[in-house]
C-alpha cells in the first residue's frame, strides 16, 4: 500500500519563502521611487495651481506699471488667501512645499511654464 503524503516539505517551503523575499527585494525600492516621483509631480501640479491663481490675481489687480503674469511682480500666498484666490488648506500645503506666506510665489516656480508649448518660464526667460 502506498502512503498518501499531504502537505509540503521543508525544502519546498524554504524555496517559496526565498522566491517571495527576492520579489520583495526587487519591488520595495521601486515602490519608494514611485512614491517620490508621485510626490514631486504633485508638488509641481500644486505650484502650477499657485502660478495660475497668481496670474489671475495680477490680471485683476495689476501693478501701477501694468505688470502682468510674465513679470516679476510680487505675489504672496498671504495676498492670494486674503483675496480668496486660495483656501486655508492650500496655504498650509504651500508651507509644506517650502513657500512661506510672505515669499514671492514666482521665486519658487522657475520650473513652471506658462502657455502650452510657448516655452516661457514665469521669470520671463525662454
What structural class do helix, strand and pairing data support?
mainly alpha
Number of helices: 3
Q: Largest sheet, order of strands side by side?
A: 1-2
Q: What would you call the shape?
A: rod-shaped
Low-confidence runs of at least 5 consecutive residues: 114-126
Protein name: Competence protein ComGC
Pfam family, one: N_methyl
InterPro entries: N_methyl_site, Pilin-like
Organism: Companilactobacillus nantensis DSM 16982
Please provide a written account of the structure.
With 126 residues, this protein is mainly alpha-helical. The protein has a domain of 78 residues. Helix content is 52%, strand content 3%. The chain has a two-stranded antiparallel sheet. The radius of gyration is 26 Å and the shape is rod-shaped. The C terminus is likely disordered. It is found in: Cell surface.
